[in-house]
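Customer escalation, tier 2.

The customer says the design service returned an amino acid string that "doesn't look like it belongs to this structure." They asked us to rerun it and document both sides in this ticket. The original structure tokens are below, unchanged.
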């Protein structure tokens, strides 16, 4: 069986990564799978161990880092988040194309460890549209919105580290473009 691809998808908060990936996950021909991440944050109501995250202590996470068991990891608001290497390798060896929806920092770590990772950065048509989308969620206070917009501007400076940049001006078109890119790499790896 052919080993699956490792696909890294990044982009600013509010750009529509989840929406695009949900559309792609419906295409069984792409044989996509999400890798379950590990975190030190508390489990939220309705979340399940091994489905939403692997929930571990800070000590367990730090030990996994020390043992080289993490493909990538980052600390965010006092908690660790990361991708267990073993899980990614298991899925890829089963022929799945593994999707990591991670931040720029995590992508750099992945690129150091997996030279042929397919990296895609999703951008908004412009920053005004991104702000409109973030505000349209009506889920966060102004301070958080401003933090997300500032972070987005910084993240946009890192698009050069990605193999492909896809503009999400139209969700269906963005998903179609990503589908073509993934299929190209699936055929290329044969």
């Amino acid at each position: 069986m052919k080993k699956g691809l490792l696909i890294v998808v990044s982009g600013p908060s509010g750009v529509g990564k989840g929406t695009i990936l949900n559309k792609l996950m419906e295409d069984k021909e792409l044989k996509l799978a999400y890798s379950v991440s590990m975190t030190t944050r508390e489990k939220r109501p309705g979340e399940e161990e091994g489905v939403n995250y692997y929930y571990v202590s800070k000590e367990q996470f730090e030990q996994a880092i020390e043992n080289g068991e993490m493909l990538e990891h980052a600390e965010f608001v006092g908690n660790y988040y990361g991708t267990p290497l073993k899980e990614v390798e298991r899925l890829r060896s089963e022929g799945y194309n593994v999707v990591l929806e991670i931040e720029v920092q995590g992508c750099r770590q992945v690129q150091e460890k997996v030279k042929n990772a397919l990296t895609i950065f999703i951008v908004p048509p412009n920053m005004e549209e991104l702000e409109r989308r973030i505000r349209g969620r009506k889920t966060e206070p102004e301070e958080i919105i401003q933090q997300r917009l500032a972070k987005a501007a910084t993240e946009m400076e890192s698009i050069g580290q990605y193999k492909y940049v896809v503009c999400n001006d139209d969700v269906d078109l963005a998903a179609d473009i990503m589908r073509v890119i993934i299929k190209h790499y699936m055929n290329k790896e044969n």
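Tier 2 assessment: The sequence is consistent with the input. DSSP finds seven helices and nine strands in the chain. Residues 6-188 form a domain with the Rossmann fold fold (CATH 3.40.50.300). Sent an explanation to the customer and offered a walkthrough call.
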